[in-house]
Amino acid sequence: MPTSPMRIAALASAALIATLASNPAQATDGYFLNGVGAKGKGMGGAGIAYPQDGMAAVNNPASIAGMESRLDLGVEIFVPDRGADISGNGAGLNGSYDGNGSNPFVLPEFAYVRPLSNDLTFALTINGNGGMNTDYETNPFASFGAQGDAGVDLKQVFISPTLAYEFAEGHSVGVSAIGLVQGFRASGIQPFTAASSDPANFTDRGTDASFGAGFRVGYYGELNDVVSIGAFYQSTIWADEFDKYAGLFADQGGFDVPTSYGAGIALHPTDRLSLAADVKRIEYSDVGSVGNPLAPLFSGVPFGATDGPGFGWDDVTVFKVGADYDVSDRFTVRAGYGRSENPVPQSETFLNILAPGVVQDHFTVGATWQASDRIEITGFAMRAPRNTVEGSGSIPVNYGGGEADVYLAETSFGLGFGLEL
């Protein structure tokens, strides 16, 4: 590498990829994280039109245009509370089940920004997506003959080099190439192999890896000293199949990352106060393994087949608002709120015992201390109160009928460190 900062970026990148790959990510906006960057997380995840650090490239690749050289490192401690209650089942599944056999999780993130000219800026970001993780030490499917812990573990790491170009004063466009490394493991669902097109590649096959690629584009504009706007579009991230789970996921193990897009606005009514609001759409239903309902199973289409059964997730719209206030030249406080639609219909809760990504409300706080002219330290905390989706016609008669209610709550806190280079 030609420069010391680039060496730092390479070493940090390798360390963060290894750490993210060993830690399962969690569900917030479905299975997308509710925010990136310690500052953005303290503002409820709002940041499409309000870049505050290098992680802004993940929200909107255009927003890093004109940003000075910097390095950002963050770590989040994530504690989900997930589980299920089954009632009215004629096959012995009734009971309350705790899916918290694995907790807590450590989620790092990294960003490096470097101007290449007055108009062109480069960034490299590495971050984990949401994900799905459950670990039921008391197996909900034991009465069917299931053995061991039941659960799933999805890990996703995104590596995104970005270029942003300021084509007019205060107005820029940006593009990110997105590389995906993901892993998946399922266990304890042996009784359902009879409904699979490939029973040997359905459950208890260890962790399988998959790789993919996509892109993100964005626009950022400062309309005046008070108002800025932004928008982004992220393509489907096309990934190769999970071969070890070709009998579980639709389309022979397919698991792409769904398309998402959104827009935001930021207001700076005074020198000390900033307000931001975002709206985002995530199209889960376009990915067969996530969006297909369970119903095809009972029309003769097995798990793993083309257009086979999935988790039945709906598309969601997400709203985020946040504010920060400079108490002094060295100390800033912030707060935010996010609201996500629930992707899991009441009719699809049975399979989603394994993936109850149903939280909707996110409340956040945060603060930044400018330790020196070059170093800043940011802390944040998030609480997503428990949300329960009560099943309605959720357990098919073939599996004893009744209802599965699934729930999820989340608590997280973390630190971010920013260094001007």
Could you describe the 3D structure shown?
- This protein has 421 residues and is mostly beta strands.
- The chain has helices spanning 4-22, 38-42, 56-59, 250-253, 288-291; strands at 70-87, 95-98, 105-115, 120-128, 151-168, 171-187, 208-222, 227-234, 238-239, 260-267, 273-282, 316-326, 331-340, 361-370, 375-389, 403-420.
- It has a single domain, classed as Outer membrane protein transport protein (OMPP1/FadL/TodX) (Porin), CATH 2.40.160.
- A hairpin with a 4-residue loop joins strand 7 and strand 8.
- The longest helix is centred in the first third of the chain and has 19 residues, at 4-22.
Summarize the structure.
With 421 residues, the protein is mainly beta. It is 9% helix and 44% strand. The model has no long low-confidence stretch (mean pLDDT 93).
Uncertain runs are: none
CATH architecture: Beta Barrel
User: What's the mean pLDDT score?
Assistant: 93
Which overall shape is indicated by the principal axes computed on the Cα atoms?
elongated
* Strand arrangement in the largest pleated sheet: 1-3-4-5-6-7-8-10-11-12-13-14-15-16
- Radius of gyration based on Cα positions: 22 Å
Q: What are the main properties of this structure?
A:
Porin, 16 strands, 421 residues, mainly beta
Write the layout of secondary structure elements.
Layout: H1 4-22, H2 38-42, H3 56-59, E1 70-87, E2 95-98, E3 105-115, E4 120-128, E5 151-168, E6 171-187, E7 208-222, E8 227-234, E9 238-239, H4 250-253, E10 260-267, E11 273-282, H5 288-291, E12 316-326, E13 331-340, E14 361-370, E15 375-389, E16 403-420
Antiparallel strand pairs: 1-2, 1-3, 1-16, 3-4, 4-5, 5-6, 6-7, 7-8, 7-9, 8-10, 10-11, 11-12, 12-13, 13-14, 14-15, 15-16
Organism: Erythrobacter westpacificensis
Membrane topology: Multi-pass membrane protein
Signal peptide: 1-27
